[in-house]
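Problem 12. The chain below contains 102 residues. Write out its predicted structure in token notation.
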Amino acid sequence: MRAPGVLVCVVSACVIGCVVGYYTADRIRAAEIAQLTQERDDSLVRERELQRQLEDAIAARAALAAEAHRLQENLSQRLKRLEEIANQLASEEKQRQEGRGE
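Solution.
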């Protein structure tokens, strides 16, 4: 009579061990899934932030390029005006020197 009782105890222990093991594994798996989901969500948020920063940087770069082009044109125009004034002054000086007979 002892053998069936021992068998029942062993089978009961195995069933209880399986249930506890499954429950523990399920809780650990759920916790890992929750952690991985949170990490993924955080990564997506960070990716969006970086994407916005990249777009802002690209827009700022374009604005700087446009400003640099505008300044270059402005400087070119000023240089042309200075050259014209220098040529005009040189021409006037030459006429004065010719008028004095030098």
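Discussion. The mean pLDDT is 91. Students who got a different answer should revisit the alignment rule from Section 12.3.
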